[in-house]
Specification:
The chain is α+β, with helices and mostly antiparallel strands and 163 residues long. It contains six helices and four strands; from the N terminus they run ααβαβαββαα. The protein has one domain: P-loop containing nucleotide triphosphate hydrolases (Rossmann fold), CATH 3.40.50.300. It has a two-stranded parallel sheet with strand order 1-2. The chain has a two-stranded antiparallel ribbon with strand order 3-4. α2 packs parallel to α3. The longest helix has 15 residues. The termini are far apart.
């Protein structure tokens, strides 16, 4: 890979990740999210066949996470290279990965597409609502009916009131 190619690639990556304004700063002065973006940018420079990514969007705000995930997808889409990503967040895995493997205590427990794993192991969603003390029971009942209308299979697990 020539120096010009590396420079061109670095410019494209820094533009995609909004790193331009941070290039003149020392690494010690960069926020954690920007450091992660920079690490990803540097890891792409050598055009590696396999890249290991450890929670690449940790410490980023939601907009920055979306940028990072888009950059990761673009870097590996339709190319003869791959990435192995470790994360605790299913949202990140779903945004970036074609296949997901779940490991428990160092043992591979299952592997498949995100949708396959959700349908096989998912148990639904939990909705927790915290209300101000002054909201009347009539309003709470109306909220319960609205939730039931939107999610017909929803059931209230518990209701805790603070007095």
């Amino acid at each position: 890979m020539s120096v010009i190619t590396v420079y061109y690639l670095f410019c494209r990556i820094t533009n995609a990740l909004d790193l331009k304004e941070h290039l003149q700063k020392t690494v010690k002065k960069l926020p954690a999210g920007i450091k992660r973006k920079l690490c990803f940018a540097l890891s792409m420079l050598g055009n590696p066949q396999i890249t290991l990514l450890d929670e690449p969007s940790t410490g980023m705000d939601p907009k920055a996470k979306q940028h990072m995930w888009r950059a990761i997808r673009t870097a590996f889409k339709n190319k003869k290279r791959a990435a192995i990503l470790t994360t605790h967040y299913m949202e990140e895995a779903e945004a970036v990965c074609d296949r997901v493997a779940i490991m428990i205590s160092g043992q591979l427990r299952c592997i498949g597409t995100v949708q396959h794993l959700k349908s096989k192991f998912g148990k639904g969603y939990y909705l927790e609502i915290k209300l101000k003390d002054w909201i009347e029971n009539l309003e709470i009942d109306r909220l319960q009916r609205e939730i039931q209308y939107i999610f017909p299979n929803a059931s209230r697990q518990e209701r805790i009131t603070n007095y």
